[in-house]
C-alpha cells in the first residue's frame, strides 16, 4: 500500500511556484496577487482563509484579505466584487463559502470576473473545463488530478466510481477523469444519495473517489483488493479526548481500507493540502494568462 502524500506533493508544487515567482520578480515583473473575501466569523472558514493567505506569503505572492461583517448587505458585497474585478493589480480572488443565509451565493459567484475566478466556480470556467479548453479547474479536483499524475497512477481504461455530485468536487472530478489526457480516459460512474446498490459499484471500481461528507462511510467490505482510494471528505467529529474537542475524519475507514488498497490518500494530509496548492497554481495561471 502506498500513501498518496498530499502534504509532500503540495509542498513540491509550492516550491515549483516559488521558483517561478522568484524569476518573475528577478526580471522586474509584479508577483501574482490573490485576494480573499471572508464574510463573518465562521471558525472553519477563518482557518481555511488563514492558511491560504500564509501559503501566498510562502510562495512570494501578494495577498489581500478582505474581512466583512456577517450582516453586510448583498449590494455592498457586490460593490466589493466589482472593485476587485476592476483592480488591475489583482490576478485572482476567492469568496470564501458558505456565505450568510441572506446573501444569494449564486448571484455573488456570477458577479466574479471569470478571468479572476481562481476557484473555477463561475459557469464560464466550468463550461470551458467541460469542453477541454483552458480554464481554471476547481482546486480540489485539480489537486486530485495532480496526485494521480505525480504518483503515476494508471487511469486510462479504469473504472472510476465518484461518490458525490457537488458542483465543487464530485461533478467536476467525474468530468475530468473521463476526459482525454493525463489522469483521464477513465470510465466514470457518478454515484449520489439516490444511487441503488452503491456497494456493488464501489466493489467493481479500480479507483474510488469519495466526496460525500459522511465519516468512515467506505469500509473494507465495499472495495476490491488493489483499489486506488481518493478520500475528499473532511468532517469534524466530536472527541473529548482531543485538545480541540474534535478530530478530522474522511469518508473512508482508513485503517481497514488501507489494508486492501494499492494507493490511498490519508485524512488529514491527502487531498486537503493539495487544494491550497492548486489555488496558488490557478493564481499563477491567472497572472500568466491575463
Ligand atoms: P456536498 O454536501 O455538496 O455533496 C455531497 C454529495 O454526496 C451529494 O452529491 C450527495 O448526493 C452525496 N451523498 C450524500 N449522502 C450519500 C450517500 N449516503 N450515498 C451516496 N451519496 C451520498 O459536499 P461537497 O462535495 O461540498 O463535500 C464533500 C466532502 O468533501 C465534505 O466532507 C467536505 O467537507 C469535503 N471537502 C473537502 C475539500 C478538501 O479540500 N479536501 C474541499 C471540498 C469539500 P445528492 O446530490 O443526491 O444530495
* Rg: 19 Å
Structural class: alpha/beta
C-alpha geometry: globular
Residue ranges: pLDDT <50 for 5 or more in a row?
none
Instruction: Determine the strand fraction and express it as a percent band.
Output: 15-25%
Bound molecules: NADPH dihydro-nicotinamide-adenine-dinucleotide phosphate
Kindly report the average pLDDT value: 97
Largest sheet: 6 strands, parallel
What order do the strands of the largest sheet run in, or round the barrel if closed?
A: 1-11-8-7-5-6
Rounded to the nearest angstrom, the distance between the terminal CA atoms is 42 Å
Write the H/E string, N to C: EHEHEHEHHHEHEHEEEEHEH
Question: Roughly what percent helix?
Answer: 40-55%
SS field, number of helical segments: 10
Strand elements, count:
11
Describe it.
The chain is of the alpha/beta class. It contains 10 helices and 11 strands. The protein has helices at 6-26, 43-59, 74-86, 105-111, 123-130, 139-150, 170-178, 198-204, 254-257, 271-289; strands at residues 2-3, 33-39, 62-68, 92-95, 159-163, 187-191, 207-210, 228-231, 235-238, 246-249, 263-264. Strands 1-11-8-7-5-6 form a 6-stranded parallel beta sheet, sandwiched between helices. Strands 3-2-4 form a 3-stranded parallel beta sheet, with helices on one face. Strands 9-10 form a two-stranded antiparallel ribbon. Helix 7 (170-178) links the parallel strand 5 and strand 6. Helix 6 (139-150) crosses helix 10. NADPH dihydro-nicotinamide-adenine-dinucleotide phosphate (NDP) is lined by residues 140, 163-166, 168-170, 191-195, 198, 211-214, 232-235, 271-272, 275.
Amino acid at each position: 500500500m502506498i500513501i498518496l502524500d498530499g502534504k509532500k506533493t503540495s509542498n513540491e508544487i509550492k516550491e515549483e511556484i516559488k521558483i517561478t515567482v522568484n524569476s518573475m520578480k528577478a526580471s522586474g515583473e509584479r508577483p501574482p496577487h490573490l485576494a480573499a473575501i471572508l464574510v463573518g466569523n465562521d471558525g472553519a472558514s477563518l482557518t481555511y482563509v488563514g492558511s491560504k493567505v500564509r501559503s501566498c506569503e510562502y510562495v512570494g505572492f501578494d495577498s489581500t484579505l478582505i474581512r466583512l461583517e456577517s450582516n453586510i448587505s448583498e449590494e455592498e458585497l457586490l460593490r466589493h466584487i466589482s472593485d476587485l474585478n476592476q483592480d488591475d493589480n489583482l490576478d485572482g480572488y476567492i469568496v470564501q463559502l458558505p456565505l450568510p443565509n441572506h446573501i444569494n451565493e449564486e448571484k455573488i459567484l456570477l458577479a466574479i470576473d471569470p478571468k479572476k475566478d481562481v476557484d473555477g466556480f463561475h459557469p464560464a470556467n466550468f463550461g470551458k473545463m467541460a469542453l477541454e479548453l483552458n480554464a481554471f479547474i476547481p482546486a480540489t479536483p485539480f489537486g486530485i488530478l495532480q496526485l494521480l499524475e505525480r504518483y503515476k497512477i494508471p487511469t486510462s481504461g479504469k473504472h472510476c466510481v465518484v461518490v458525490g455530485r457537488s458542483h465543487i468536487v464530485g461533478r467536476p472530478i467525474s468530468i475530468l477523469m473521463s476526459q482525454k489526457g493525463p489522469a483521464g480516459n477513465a470510465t466514470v460512474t457518478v454515484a449520489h444519495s439516490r444511487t441503488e446498490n452503491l456497494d456493488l459499484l464501489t466493489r467493481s471500481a479500480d479507483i474510488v473517489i469519495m466526496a460525500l461528507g459522511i465519516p468512515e462511510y467506505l469500509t473494507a467490505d465495499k472495495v476490491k483488493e488493489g483499489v486506488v482510494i481518493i478520500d475528499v471528505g473532511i468532517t469534524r467529529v466530536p472527541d473529548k479526548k482531543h485538545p480541540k474537542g474534535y478530530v478530522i475524519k474522511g469518508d473512508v475507514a482508513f485503517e481497514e481500507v488501507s489494508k486492501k488498497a494499492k494507493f490511498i490518500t490519508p485524512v488529514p494530509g491527502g487531498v486537503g493540502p493539495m487544494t491550497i496548492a492548486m489555488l496558488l497554481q490557478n493564481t499563477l495561471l491567472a497572472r500568466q494568462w491575463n
